[in-house]
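Exercise: predict the fold of this chain.
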Amino acid sequence: TRALDADMEAARGAGATVVCVAADATLLGALVLTDAPRPTARDAVRTLLDRGLSVRLLSGDAQPTAAAVGAALGIVDVAGGRTPEGKIVALGEMKAAGRSVVMVGDGINDAPALATADVGIAMGGGSDLTLGAADIALLRDDPALVPLAFDLARAIHRNIAQNLGWAFAYNVVALPLAVAGILPPALAGAAMAFSSVAVVLNAWTLRRTG
């Protein structure tokens, strides 16, 4: 029994969850459960960190278990034992500090925090409640898609600004010239068509993102 107790304590210290098996008030053994991060999770975290983003792990698991997962992923800021309400509090503190908060989750317990964050990202394998609470739903249950979502968001923002530039140039320059009779109607029509085509072609370049 002492040996089993020592093994269980060592397992807990390593971040594992220990489930005892007993019969007739007699301890027969223990099951040691560990959380294995998804294969692409560490690279996804590293990509986000390399871009200057802060990554924090909020988990409902006990602190030792959460810390072990955080160490495997390269996350230093780890908070375990967080209830759904506790996650909301943590996000509120970060937002109060002036940070823009993106929450990534897949469990039902993550749904309130996903709805609270500035941007909620639900993993593809999440529950319907989680997917409904998020702003972005990934099509696959792959953490590598999280950095891609950031890339796509930046590309869309840049694309919109460029498209507005084309529209602004036409309406501010070409249209008044056409009204004043300086720009021939045929040339004004061609400029309008070019503006529309340019917007469509520019939006088409988003297919290359990622």
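Check your answer against the key: The mean pLDDT is 87.
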